[in-house]
Amino acid sequence: DKKLIGYCSDGQEFKRGLKQVWSTIRQRAPYYVPVVMWLPKYNLSQWLVADLLTGLAIAAVVIPQGIAYSSLAQVPPVYGLYTAWMPCIIYFFMGTSRQLSIGPEGVISLLTGAAVYVGFQDVQDSQTLYDYTIPRAAVLTFLVGIFTLALGILRVGFLDNLISRPILHGFVSASAAIIFVGQLDTFLGFHVSEQEWEKLIGVA
């Protein structure tokens, strides 16, 4: 009898624990997965057509942008297409901004290409180069994702305020100049394998 009573009390405590866990999940879910909060309120008749047209307009920009940025990251163009649509699907569930366009970004693509291209500057065949750069880019992306997730959990986003705006503006301007020079030979229809300033001289 005592064992039976003990089992019953343990079962009740287990049920109470499950209820508490479920209650916590329901309270925290809108914060981490905002789609559960706004999707039930979505008005199909008023917003669907406008959202579809907006999506098509953004796709017309993001798809060629992703293909172009794949060359900066030293990966095949199809990977640029992956980065054009996959982040949008994830952001649909976890994002909070209605105006933000998610996709590949020039500075990140440039830094990725610089990291995965080290040691293979003399490789001329693109397929051979991709055999080396694709695994490197995948590992780098995974590590950056883990690091960013850890920063989000620790809530250290305030560190961004320590970087002054002039430094950010200078960094973005320099990155734009490097991207422009890096694409000059491709834009003009020939290949120069040197680094940016040597490439600029070679193009000239």
TrEMBL record:
Domain SLC26A/SulP transporter residues, every copy: 48-194
Q: InterPro entries given for it?
A: S04_transporter_CS (IPR018045), SLC26A/SulP_dom (IPR011547), SLC26A/SulP_fam (IPR001902)
**Any stretches that span the bilayer, and where are they?**
47-67, 79-95, 102-120, 132-154, 166-184
Subcellular locations according to the entry: Membrane
Q: State the source organism's domain of life.
A: Eukaryota
The name of this protein is SLC26A/SulP transporter domain-containing protein
One GO term describing the cellular component: membrane
Topology relative to the membrane = Multi-pass membrane protein
